[in-house]
Amino acid sequence: MSQMFHLVRHAQASFGAEDYDNLSELGHRQSEALGRALRRQGVAPDRFFIGAMKRHRQTIEGILKGMGREAEVTVLPGWNEFDFDGLLKARFAKELAPDGIYSERRAHFRALRETVHMWQRDEIENPPEMFADFSTRVQEAREIVAESGAKVPLAVSSGGAIGQTVAQITGGPADQMIALQLQVKNCAVARFVVSRNGTWLHGFNETPHIDAENTAEMLTYS
Fold first, then answer.
1. Is-above-0.85 flag for pTM?
2. What are residue 154's DSSP bridge partners?
3. What is the spatial distance between Cα 142 and Cα 13, in angstroms, rounded to a whole number?
4. What is the pLDDT along the chain (222 residues), one digit of tens a residue?
5. Is 125 helix (H, G, I), strand (E, B) or coil?
6. What structural domains does the chain harbor?
7. Taking burial as the number of CB atoms within 10 A of a residue's CB, which of 133, 148, 210, 213 is the most buried?
8. Regarding beta strands 73-75 and 47-50, do their DSSP bridges make them parallel or antiparallel, or are they unpaired?
9. Rounded distance between C-alpha atoms, residue 192 and residue 6, angstroms
10. How far is CA 146 from CA 5, 49, 150, in A?
């Protein structure tokens, strides 16, 4: 039996706020719009999975509302994002952090890209999580979904876990994770065909909830 797995990035969170792990007002609208768009496409998931983060839960609630559905949701912490704030603090524990890395998007993502590369090379002392452990838990979460018996599973995760999943499946080098992560739009969908013979990328960074009329509002990256 083949499986069409839909892996969704959470909707817009609260960048720069004290609690990033909380959808913005726009994020709630994005998630509902995605649910409506998937329903129009004829996508009818038979199992739902999320990471253990608040923004994952809020996003799936919006998707289900947009679909006009109620469903049981399975929490898999393996789909959680890595602790990017903790990782940056670990990197700059002994040196002055660049200005703006916690408040300005450009500075933040430039520093994050460099920091993730260092993390992957084991060059950061006392990180909140080793990269090898992150990679393993993401793969294990994907395997749980694959073995769930669902024909059309849908999971909500975060950009890092999604970038790592795509890199793993396509056989890309480790440094492709952050390159992919920084491309993933809020509420973007990656699709994978899963069978006994392997897993293949079928679609990446798809945004069926965005059209020419709402792009200026709906297209966000954090």
1. yes
2. 6, 48
3. 23
4. 799 999 999 999 986 656 778 999 999 999 999 999 999 999 999 999 999 999 999 999 999 999 999 999 999 999 999 999 999 999 999 887 777 777 788 888 899 999 999 999 999 999 999 999 999 999 999 999 999 999 999 999 999 999 999 999 999 998 899 999 999 999 999 999 999 999 999 999 999 999 999 999 999 998
5. coil
6. 3-82+137-218 (3.40.50.1240), 84-128 (no CATH)
7. 210
8. parallel
9. 7
10. 8, 11, 8
Measuring CA to CA, which residue among 150, 148, 158 is closest to residue 190? 158
Residue with tokens 């452990």: 133
Structure tokens at 110: 């430039």
**Tokens 């720069």 correspond to what residue?**
16
In DSSP notation, 156-190 reads EE-HHHHHHHHHHHHT--TTHHHHHHTTPPTT-EE
Tokens of 3: 């499986």
Token couple for 159: 């950009």
